[in-house]
Amino acid sequence: MEFKVEKTPTVFFVRLQSKEKAFLTYRIVGKVMELIGTYTPPEFRGKGIAALMVKEAIKYAREKGLRMKPVCSYAIYFFKKHKEERDVLINEYRKLSDWEWDELFSKRLTEEKLKKS
Please, are residues 53 and 14 in contact by the beta-carbon 8 Å criterion? Predict the structure, then answer.
C-alpha cells in the first residue's frame, strides 16, 4: 500500500482509504519547525504512515533551511530511533544522549496521557 503525503501551512497529512486522514501538525516559529502532534487512525497504525509524514517534514525543513523541535511523543520517538536525521534538530536536541532521549520520550508520553484523561 502506497501513501502520499500532502501539506498545508500547518499540517502534513495522508488521505486514507477509509476517507479518514492521518496527520502531523506543526508550526513554524522563526526558523524552527515545531512538530506538535500526530494522529493515525487505529486501523492504520504500524504501517509507517507517521514516520512517512515526519520524513516529509524533515525534507521540507531542510529545503527551507529550518531547524526542527520535536514536541509530540511520536516525533520524539522518531528522532530517538533515527539518529541519522538528528542533524536537522535545534542544538539542544542534537546534543542529547540516548538516555536523555528515553527520558524526554517517557516524560512527554506521560504528559500526553494526563492531558487525555
Answer: yes
Instruction: Set out the domains of the chain in order of their start, with CATH numbers.
Output: 5-116 (3.40.630.30)
pTM: 0.94
Return the axis-axis angle of helices 73-81 and 98-116, rounded to nearest 10°: 160
Query: Is the predicted pLDDT of residue 18 greater than 90, yes or no?
Result: no
Grid cell, residue 65, equals 533551511
Give the span between the Cα atoms of 51 and 87, in whole angstroms.
17
Cα Rg of the chain, angstroms: 14
Q: Compute the distance between CA of residue 80 and CA of residue 78 in angstroms, rounded to an integer.
A: 5
3-state secondary structure of 110: helix
Helix/strand/coil for 46: coil
For residue 72, the model assigns a pLDDT of 98
Residue 71 has pLDDT above 90, yes or no: yes
> What is the distance between the alpha carbons of residues 60 and 105, in angstroms, rounded to a whole number?
24
Sequence-separated (6 or more) residues with CB below 8 Å from residue 75: 24, 35, 38, 54
